[in-house]
Design a protein that fits this description.
Blueprint lengths: L2 H7 L5 H12 L4 E2 H11 L8 H13 L3 E7 L5 E7 L1 H25 L3
Antiparallel strand pairs: 1-3, 2-3
Helix pairs in contact: 2-3, 2-4, 2-5
């Protein structure tokens, strides 16, 4: 797939979906903001791109809700970076979000491909 067609097929992410993507990504292990963005892009085959202007407000919102915790560490290239981790409450929220996502997928499938 060419770079131009990849850009054209990128998908706009709804806020609730962004929260789920972040929680899922951080659930795999502590990560800094740029790493979260890169992981989402890579795992989606370059279809999902989270811009800085959306990512950091979402991280702060999730931290404020108690779903993420953070601490400053040195990154792999020796720069100071804030690493985010999933809290116990965040794990519960992730499970809830995954359940709602599965219901949405089923509902969309029923509408798009009725039996």
């Amino acid at each position: 797939m060419s770079e131009a067609s990849r850009y054209q097929t990128r998908i706009e992410i709804l806020q609730g979906t962004l929260d789920l993507l972040i929680l899922q990504t951080v659930g795999r292990g502590a990560e800094h903001g740029h790493g979260i963005s890169q992981a989402i892009r890579a795992r989606s085959g370059d279809l999902l791109s989270v811009e800085t202007g959306s990512l950091y407000p979402a991280l702060h919102r999730l931290e404020k809700r108690g779903w993420l915790s953070s601490e400053w560490k040195s990154s792999e290239n020796n720069q100071r970076a804030k690493y985010y981790s999933l809290t116990k409450l965040g794990k519960k929220q992730l499970a809830s979000e995954q359940g709602r996502w599965n219901l949405l997928v089923q509902a969309m499938s029923g509408v798009l491909d009725p039996a």
